[in-house]
Design goal:
- The radius of gyration is 22 Å and the shape is globular.
- Helices cover 27% and strands 24% of the residues.
- It has helices spanning 14-24, 67-75, 130-136, 153-167, 176-185, 203-217, 262-268, 330-345, 368-371, 399-415, 419-423, and strands spanning 7-10, 30-34, 45-48, 53-56, 61-63, 82-83, 90-94, 100-103, 196-199, 221-224, 228-234, 237-243, 246-249, 255-258, 278-286, 297-301, 307-311, 314-320, 354-364, 384-386.
């Protein structure tokens, strides 16, 4: 049997890793390249010199209903690298009132939990949750504020904090369809699909290092630290890849998957549309052990910090749609976020050693207008495909979306006829 044609996967973030793993698992020769000296893209871990420990660049949460996450982790043998409760529970704390509560959806799809006062958001009534039913329906091209009244206890204490973290965009202006797509696959199916999962002990240990090891075992070539400068497009196909060290020819029967940021792809491929507005995420990592019994994750309202994560050796904070914080000096920002953490956990004393991580273009803005700019995996060039959470996955920019895009690009690269085959008499 003839060996499948080689596939060049350029970009070793989660989308590129997903594509490479899917292809290598089908016996396809893969060359995986990335400009950075390490794989992982925005989902990376590193040893921080200020804190003297390994941290993730940000806190990335997945849910038990994320099917592509499950497939990917099984493929790389890392199913045991996610930690979380055995049932859907989400802790919240309002910094203004000092009130805390736990949202506890029931396991099955019939949402009887909204009838139980102890399971739902304080101050809400069962009929308030019809807002969730509205989001579960499709609303092409509409903003959330055109579908829901963005006010009231349910909005302030649950929907807004959850949606801003899902969409990384002020939810009032965000796409109702993108929000609904996530809810339909998770909370809409019940608590069993909504259990929170956090990478342990790090993002790299869960999503990156096992993938690289698996690819090496399957004979894939991994070439890090080489940047793609451009493509040579001839005869309706990619004929060459211009890396920093020179050009690598692409034979007519070979395939190319670009798993690169949208601004890079837009510059390299004329006529390709891509999102051009982005939103920031700010993370803070404090070198301090959390109090005994501190929950692994708490959602905050009434402050600046939005989600607080407790790790054995540190406390981490995430703020989504954080463009308003980008110009703040790191010391002042650390003090501002620590004030919220200290109020949550009752921690006195000065601000502990802190690392602030600002991702200026963390995700595309999840508005209807930007969603309409997302391209599919297939391009007008034969044997050239796209992957990335910014492509048209039907989801906002999430780990689940990135992995799905890699699977879709791999499926096209595996099944599409090559230029040589289509040109054969």
């Amino acid at each position: 049997m003839a060996r499948p044609p080689r596939v060049h996967v350029v970009g070793a973030g989660l989308a590129g890793l997903s594509a490479a793993v899917a292809l290598a698992g089908r016996g396809v020769p893969v060359v995986l390249s990335d400009a950075a000296p390490q794989a992982g893209g925005r989902c990376r871990s590193y040893h921080d010199s200020v804190l003297g420990m390994v941290i993730d660049n940000g806190n990335h949460l997945v849910l038990s209903g994320n099917a592509a996450v499950g497939r990917y982790l099984r493929a790389i043998g890392a199913e045991d690298r996610l930690a979380g409760p055995n049932r859907a529970e989400f802790r919240f704390f309002d910094l203004g009132s000092g009130q805390g509560w736990t949202l506890r959806p029931n396991a099955g799809p019939l949402p009887w939990w909204v009838l139980a006062r102890g399971r739902r958001v304080p101050g809400t009534r069962p009929r308030d949750y019809l807002a969730l039913a509205a989001l579960l329906r499709r609303h092409p091209g509409q903003r959330i504020d055109e579908v829901l009244p963005c006010r009231g206890p349910l909005w302030d204490r649950l929907l807004r904090p959850v949606l801003v973290s899902i969409l990384n965009t002020a939810p009032e202006e965000a796409s109702a369809d993108l929000a609904g797509a996530v809810l339909r696959e998770t909370l809409g199916k019940g608590g069993d699909w909504t259990r929170p999962r956090i990478a342990m002990p790090s993002l790299a240990a869960a999503f990156v290092e096992p993938a690289l090891e698996r690819l090496r075992q399957m004979g894939s070539e991994i070439r890090l630290g080489r940047r793609l400068r451009g493509l040579r497009l001839e005869g309706g196909r990619p004929a060459g890849l211009h890396f920093t060290e020179g050009e690598e020819a692409v034979a007519p029967h070979e395939r190319v998957i670009l798993a690169l940021p949208p601004w890079t792809v837009r510059d390299m491929l004329p006529g390709v549309t891509a999102p051009d507005a982005f939103r920031a995420i700010v993370n803070a990592h404090f070198r301090i052990a959390p109090p005994e019994g501190a929950p692994a994750m708490v959602g905050l309202t009434g402050g600046t910090a939005e989600w607080v994560f407790a790790f054995p050796d540190r406390i981490s904070v995430t703020v989504s749609a954080a463009d308003h914080l980008l110009d703040m000096e790191s010391e002042a920002l650390a003090a501002l976020l620590w004030r919220d953490v200290a109020a949550l956990h009752g921690l006195p004393g000065p601000v502990p050693p802190c690392r602030i991580v600002k991702e200026k273009r963390a995700t595309f803005a999840a508005t209807p207008a930007q969603d309409a700019l997302r391209p599919g995996c297939r391009t007008r060039w034969a044997n050239l495909f796209l992957a990335g959470d910014w492509t048209d996955t039907g989801l906002p920019a999430t780990i689940e979306g990135a992995l799905r895009s890699g699977e879709a690009a791999a499926a096209l690269a595996f099944s599409s006829p090559s230029v040589a085959e289509t040109a054969a008499p």
